[in-house]
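Format is chain and fold; as here:
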Amino acid sequence: MAGSAEGGTNVLYLGLLVPALMALVAGLVIHSFIIGVNVSDWWRGRSVTPVDLIVTLLGILRICAQSAITLDVFLGRFLPLDFLMFTVYLFFTNANVLVTSLLSFIYCLKISNLHTRLFLYLRRMISHRTGRLIVFLLLFSAVNCSMVFVMV
């Protein structure tokens, strides 16, 4: 009886492993293509726009998050890394949400046709300070994830 229950768990594990690998390969291909196109354009001398910088960072963050969850599926069976992998995945997911929000804000400023001083100031400020905002958002995500360690 005990052997059949263990065998059922292995079948379930393999049943979850195959879709996880398929999602990993699909995600790696798609996000690597996005990163590759942007990086090759930058190497050719095209200027880096804030939107290109954010889209490239989103691709990197999503590759890292997907790799972390796939490693958890692979190694979680053999090594007790649940808490560490959860924290790493939480960091990448939080950073992904924050950077996506920044991208939405930049697109909102781009498509708005309001000519008030506030919107004109925000357009200029965002375009020059995108790098700093990205660093701040990544640090904020790291601090947010470090709170998990404080709570435990």
Observations:
- Residues 2-151 form one domain.
- The radius of gyration is 20 Å.
